[in-house]
Write a structure and sequence with these properties.
6-stranded parallel β-sheet; globular; alpha/beta; 11 strands; 5-stranded parallel β-sheet; about 300 residues
């Protein structure tokens, strides 16, 4: 009978990767997930749906979920889950998610994460940057409440927190180098989600500028895309067509690693990064990392 509940309301990308890593090695576990679509709706409504589909069972001892889930709502709707050891895993935090204007920030997402922390027994962050940026932002975030603000929540939450770096399992591999090593063009890879928080505009505008100045290179743009793709991707594909080697999400992990092995440099221009799985995978495959000296990058690529 299952003893461990694994819950992921946004089963895609690194969220899926973590669940698929944990499920085979955690004995007597059972997984409940929702497809990686409409992130905002998953954060808002997944708890109600999951409260109806998770069967009642007296054998459950542990509940492990990502912070996309509103844990407070779930245990309120399902009191039978309240006494389980509740572990919350932070892939990212919404208190620091970049927005163009503060008034554009949806207060509810960050507020849900704070509530989830208050009811969790253990809180795991995938990096020190993620943990400290979350805890240090709570007081400022709560100042958005017009009056009667709660106090000292960071102090209440911190003792339950720890950092466990995201587990990455990759095969042994040798760096692939083309035979015409001296004459070949530099191969640049960008292996990130096709979304605005990864700042693709800076990346592509830089490459288009290099192209205008006469520099030649090869380009692989990997990563997952969703319904609303930033317009810069279509523009870059047209203007850099002669340089493109790979474009889009790869059909398998093997093909993905093959692309990384063939590249020389991996670039991040992100405004929002709490761990950087793709960057570490690329470095493992032999790429030299170029990343901002901020966010999680000084932690995973120390000088």
């Amino acid at each position: 009978m299952p003893e461990v509940l694994l819950i992921e309301p946004f089963y895609g990308g690194s969220h899926q990767q973590l669940m698929d890593t944990l499920e085979p090695i955690i004995k007597d576990s059972v997984k409940f997930t929702l497809p990686a679509k409409k992130w905002h709706w998953r954060a808002r409504t997944a708890a109600l749906y999951l409260s109806q589909v998770i069967p009642k069972n007296d054998t459950y001892r542990i509940l492990f979920a990502s912070s996309v889930l509103n844990l407070a709502e779930l245990v309120a709707l399902r009191p039978d889950l309240l006494n389980l050891k509740k572990i919350l895993y932070f892939h990212e935090n919404q208190l620091l998610y970049p927005v163009k204007k503060q008034q554009d920030r949806d207060f509810q997402y960050g507020y849900n994460q704070i509530l989830s922390c208050l009811v969790a027994d253990k809180i795991i962050f995938n990096s020190k940057f993620n943990q400290e940026s979350f805890l240090s932002s709570i007081d400022t975030f709560l100042k958005l409440i017009p009056d009667h603000r709660p106090k000292n929540l960071a102090e209440e939450i911190r003792p339950k927190c720890c950092v466990i770096y995201f587990p990455i399992f990759m095969p042994e591999m040798c760096k692939y180098i083309e035979p015409d090593n001296k004459s070949r063009r530099l191969h640049v890879v960008w292996p990130h989600r096709w979304e605005h928080d990864k700042n693709p505009e800076l990346f592509f505008n830089t490459l288009m500028k290099l192209h205008e100045e006469g520099y030649e290179f090869k380009l692989s743009v990997l990563g997952q895309s969703f319904k609303d793709v930033p317009a810069i991707f279509e523009e870059a594909k047209a203007k850099l067509d002669n340089f493109i080697v790979n474009w889009g999400y790869q059909s398998s992990k093997a093909e993905y690693f093959k692309c990384l092995q063939s590249a020389d440099v991996v670039v991040s221009t992100a405004n929002h990064e709490f761990f950087g799985v793709a960057m570490l995978e690329a470095v493992h495959c032999g790429c030299y990392p170029i990343a901002p000296n901020r966010l999680v990058y000084p932690e995973i690529f120390p000088s």
